[in-house]
Specification:
By secondary structure, the protein is mostly helical. The protein is 62% helix and 3% strand. Among the domains are: 115 residues, Serine Threonine Protein Phosphatase 5, Tetratricopeptide repeat; 201 residues, P-loop containing nucleotide triphosphate hydrolases (Rossmann fold). It has 35 helices and 5 strands. It has a 5-stranded parallel β-sheet with strand order 2-3-1-4-5. Helix 15 runs antiparallel to helix 16 and helix 23 runs antiparallel to helix 24. The longest helix is centred in the last third of the chain and has 21 residues. It starts with 5 loop residues before the first helix and ends with a helix. About 3% of the residues have low confidence. This is Tetratricopeptide (TPR) repeat protein. It holds the Pfam family TPR_11.
Length: 718
C-alpha cells in the first residue's frame, strides 16, 4: 500500500472516528494503524488506539499507545486522564506512583493534578445512606438473615422496620431485595422505586433495581439503572458485574468486557463476574483469553462446579477435548447434585460419540431437576425412543402442567416432537413442533427483511469484481483448508466427517472466521458493505493469514483442516483470493427435507432466528439459492457441489468424487467415517456416529399439509 499523503491521513482519521463511534473497533483500529504507518508521530491516533483498548477491557494494552500520545503531546489533559483511567483499572500502586510523579513534574494545572490523584487514590468505603433513627445492629441482623437464606424472617423484620421508619431508604432497599429473592418481582420493584424516591443517588439501590430489571428481561431499564449505579459508585463490584451482564445480553459483548473486568479486579471472589467475563470472551471467539480469565479466578479461590464447566467450554473451543473432559468431571465431582453439570457433561459426551455415558448424565440431570425441559430435549437428541417409554409419559405430563414456564415448555415440545416421530405417532408430531417453534419465535423475534438486506449488500459488494482477472495476491498463504458449506441440516456435518476421516485431514468443526473477517473488512459505518475491490492485496493476505492461523491452532499438526461453517457460501469469492489453495465443498439437499429438519431443531440462543417460522424458512432458502446462483456465475468451477441424496444412494462413488475434489488420494477410512474419533459439535452429532442411512430422505412427506406455508414461500425452489 502506498504511503498516505496529509489529505488522505485526515480523511482516513475521520473515517476511523466514525467506525469507532459505530462500535466497529476492529475496522477503526486497522485504520488508525494504517495512519501510523504513514506518520507515527500523531498523538491523536495513539490516543484513540488507547481508547479502543480500554473499551475492550484491556487496560494493560491501552497503556502503550496512551503513553506514546502523552510523550508527543505532554500538555493535553485528556491524555493524562485516559492514562489515569487505565492505571486505575490495573490497580498497580507502583505504576500509579510513577505516573503521579510524572504528572507533578509536568507542572499540570492544579485542578487536573487533583483529579488524577483522586482517580488513583485507594478506593474509599462507600458512604452509606443515612440510617435515620434505625439502629445499625438492626440492619446488620436483617442482612445476616438474608445471607443465611432465612428470607421469610428477613422479610418480616424488614416490613416491621419499614413501617416504623418509612423515610429510611436502606430499609426499603433491604425489603426489596427480600421480595426479589422470594420471586415477588412486582412488589420488589415497588420497594426499589420507594427507596430511590427517598434517595435518588443511592447507588446500591440503583444497582439492585437494575439487576431485578435484568432478570425480568427489561434490558433498557436495567442498563439505565446500572449505568447510573456505576456513575455513582464506580467501585461497587456488583454494579459493574450486572452492567457487564446487561451489555452482553443486549448484544454489546465487546463493551461488556470493561465493566466485567472491573468487577473482577474489585472483587476477585465474585463468581458471577468471573463466569460472565469468560462467557463474553467465549462469545467473542477468544477461548484462550477466557481460559486465562478462568485460571485467574481459580487462583483467587474459585473452585465450584460453574467455574469448571466454563473452563471445560473454553478448552473444548480450543480443540482440547481431553482437557475439557477432565474439567467436566471436576465440575461433577465438585457438585454431584448439580443438574447443570451432568447435563452439560452429557452434551459434551454426545459430541465425542460416548452416547451411553451421555445418557447416564442426562438421566441424572432429569432426576435432579425434573421441571427443566431443556434436560429432556438435549437427551432426546440421541435417545432411541420406543413406544411405551415411560420418559415420554413423563414429558407429556410435564408439558400439560400449567405451572411450566415458556422456556421449559418450549424444550419439552421439541423433545416430544422427536419422541412422537420416533414412535410413529405422526399425528402428534406437528402440534408439538408448532408450539415449540412459536415459543422460540416469541423469545427471539425476527424479520426476514434483515436477510434480504444482507444478501443484497453482499451481492452488491462482489458484483463489480472480475474474479477471472483478479488473481490471488503475492504473499497469500499456501495453506489449503477445506471449507464445507451449505444450509444447516443439509448434510454438511456428514460430508465434513467423511473428509476428516482421511489420514491427512483434521476436522475443526464450525469456525466461521472467514465470513466474519470478510464482513468486518467490507462493513461501512453507515451500514451495508463497500465494494470488494476496495480491499487491498494486503487486506486479503491478512484475512488469509488470520484464517490459516486460527485453523492450524485448532487442529495442530494436521496437513489439511476442514472448516464446516455454514455462512462461508456468502463469501466464496473472497476465499478464492485470500486462500488460493483452499477447496470449497457446497452441500445441497432437497429443500423440503432441509427446512423441515431445521424446523424440528433448536439452535444456539440468538442464532438462526429465521428457523422458527415456516414462511421465513422458505424465503430464506430462496435467498440461499440466489447466492449460490450468483457464485456459480462469478466463480465457474470454483467449488465442488455434492447432493446429499446422491451421497446417501451411492456413498462410495460420491465419497470418492468428494475426496478427489479436495485434492486428496482415496482412503477406505473415508467410508468408515462413523468410526472416526473426533469431537462433533453440531445438531447432527448422533447421526454422524452411524453408518449412512436413508430414513431421513423425504421425511417431509408425512407432514406436507402442515408444511404448506413453507412450500408456498419456496415457490419455484422446490
Amino acid at each position: 500500500m502506498l504511503p498516505l499523503d496529509p489529505a488522505q491521513i485526515k480523511r482516513r482519521f475521520q473515517e476511523a472516528l466514525k467506525l469507532q463511534g459505530a462500535g466497529r473497533l476492529d475496522d477503526a483500529e486497522r485504520a488508525y494503524l494504517d495512519i501510523l504507518k504513514a506518520n507515527p508521530s500523531l498523538p491523536e491516533v495513539h490516543y484513540q488506539l488507547g481508547r479502543i483498548a480500554l473499551s475492550r477491557g484491556r487496560p494493560e494494552a491501552a497503556l502503550g499507545p496512551i503513553e506514546r500520545a502523552r510523550k508527543l503531546k505532554p500538555a493535553e489533559p485528556a491524555i493524562w486522564q485516559l492514562e489515569a483511567e487505565a492505571l486505575a483499572r490495573l490497580e498497580d500502586e507502583a505504576a500509579n506512583r510513577r505516573f503521579l510523579k510524572a504528572a507533578k513534574a509536568a507542572r499540570l494545572p492544579a485542578k487536573l493534578l487533583v483529579a488524577l490523584q483522586n482517580r488513583l487514590s485507594p478506593p474509599k468505603a462507600r458512604s452509606r445512606t443515612d440510617l435515620g433513627t434505625v439502629r445499625p445492629e438492626e440492619v446488620r441482623r436483617l442482612i445476616g438473615l438474608m445471607k443465611a437464606g432465612r428470607l421469610a424472617e428477613a422479610e418480616t423484620g424488614a416490613r416491621r422496620l419499614r413501617k416504623a421508619h418509612p423515610d429510611v431508604p436502606v430499609i426499603a432497599n433491604i425489603l426489596a431485595n427480600c421480595l426479589a429473592e422470594r420471586g415477588r418481582a412486582d412488589a420488589a420493584a415497588a420497594e426499589f422505586e420507594a427507596a430511590l424516591k427517598l434517595a435518588p443517588d443511592y447507588a446500591e439501590a440503583q444497582a439492585n433495581y437494575g439487576r431485578l430489571l435484568l432478570d425480568r428481561g427489561d434490558l433498557a431499564g436495567a442498563l439505565r439503572r446500572l449505568r447510573r449505579a456505576v456513575e455513582l459508585a464506580p467501585d461497587l463490584p456488583t454494579a459493574q458485574a450486572a452492567l457487564g451482564l446487561a451489555l452482553a445480553r443486549s448484544g454489546e459483548t465487546e463493551p461488556a468486557l470493561a465493566p466485567l473486568r472491573r468487577a473482577v479486579a474489585l472483587e476477585p471472589r465474585l463468581s458471577e463476574a468471573q463466569l460472565a467475563l469468560a462467557q463474553a470472551l467465549l462469545d467473542l471467539r477468544r477461548p484462550e483469553e477466557a481460559e486465562k480469565a478462568l485460571r485467574s479466578a481459580m487462583a483467587a479461590g474459585q473452585s465450584g462446579a460453574p467455574i469448571h464447566l466454563r473452563m471445560a467450554q473454553a478448552l473444548a473451543a480450543q480443540g482440547r477435548a481431553e482437557d475439557a473432559a477432565a474439567e467436566y468431571d471436576s465440575a461433577v465431582a465438585a457438585d454431584p447434585n448439580s443438574a447443570t453439570a451432568h447435563s452439560l457433561r452429557g452434551m459434551f459426551r454426545q459430541t465425542l460419540g460416548r452416547f451411553d455415558d451421555a445418557e447416564a448424565d442426562f438421566r441424572k440431570a432429569i432426576a435432579l431437576e425434573p421441571d427443566n425441559g431443556e434436560h429432556y430435549r438435549t437427551f432426546a437428541a440421541s435417545v432411541k425412543f420406543a413406544p411405551g417409554d415411560p420418559l415420554i409419559a413423563e414429558m407429556e405430563a410435564r408439558f400439560a402442567d400449567d405451572t411450566q414456564g415458556d422456556s421449559s415448555r418450549m424444550h419439552l415440545a421439541f423433545a416430544l416432537a422427536r419422541a412422537m416421530e420416533a414412535t410413529k405417532a405422526h399425528d402428534k408430531v406437528f402440534p408439538y413442533l408448532a408450539t415449540g417453534n412459536a415459543l422460540m419465535r416469541k423469545r427471539f423475534s425476527y424479520d426476514i427483511a434483515e436477510r434480504r438486506a444482507e444478501v443484497d449488500a453482499v451481492k452488491s459488494a462482489f458484483a463489480g469484481t472480475d474474479f477471472a482477472a483478479r488473481t490471488a495476491p503475492a504473499g497469500a498463504p499456501d495453506f489449503a483448508p477445506i471449507f464445507v458449506t451449505g444450509m444447516p441440516r443439509s448434510g454438511t456435518t456428514l460430508v465434513e466427517q467423511i473428509i476428516a476421516s482421511h489420514s491427512r485431514v483434521g476436522g475443526a468443526g464450525e469456525v466461521g472466521y472467514m465470513a466474519r473477517a470478510v464482513s468486518s473488512r467490507l462493513s461501512q459505518a453507515g451500514g451495508g458493505y463497500r465494494p470488494f475491490d476496495a480491499l487491498t492485496d494486503s487486506d486479503l493476505v491478512e484475512i488469509g493469514d488470520g484464517a490459516a492461523a486460527r485453523l492450524r491452532a485448532l487442529v495442530p499438526g494436521a496437513d489439511r483442516v476442514t472448516d464446516k461453517s455454514i455462512q462461508t457460501y456468502m463469501v466464496m469469492g473472497a476465499v478464492r483470493l485470500a486462500l488460493p489453495n483452499a477447496h470449497i465443498v457446497l452441500v445441497k439437499r432437497d429443500p423440503r427435507d432441509t427446512l423441515f429438519s431445521i424446523y424440528k431443531n433448536v439452535f444456539a440462543e440468538g442464532t438462526h432466528r429465521y428457523a422458527y417460522d415456516l414462511r421465513d424458512l422458505g424465503l430464506y432458502y430462496r435467498m440461499f439459492e440466489e447466492m449460490i446462483d450468483f457464485w456459480r456465475a462469478k466463480l465457474p468451477g470454483g467449488f465442488h457441489e455434492i447432493q446429499y441424496e446422491d451421497l446417501i444412494a451411492n456413498p462410495e462413488a460420491e465419497s470418492r468424487k468428494l475426496v478427489a475434489a479436495c485434492g486428496l488420494d482415496w482412503e477406505d477410512a473415508c467410508l468408515s467415517f462413523h468410526e472416526t474419533e473426533r469431537r462433533v459439535s453440531t445438531l447432527s452429532v448422533y447421526q454422524v456416529r452411524q453408518p449412512i442411512y436413508k430414513s431421513s430422505v423425504a421425511a417431509w412427506e408425512r407432514y406436507k399439509d402442515d408444511l404448506a406455508p413453507m412450500f408456498e414461500a419456496l415457490g419455484g425452489a422446490i
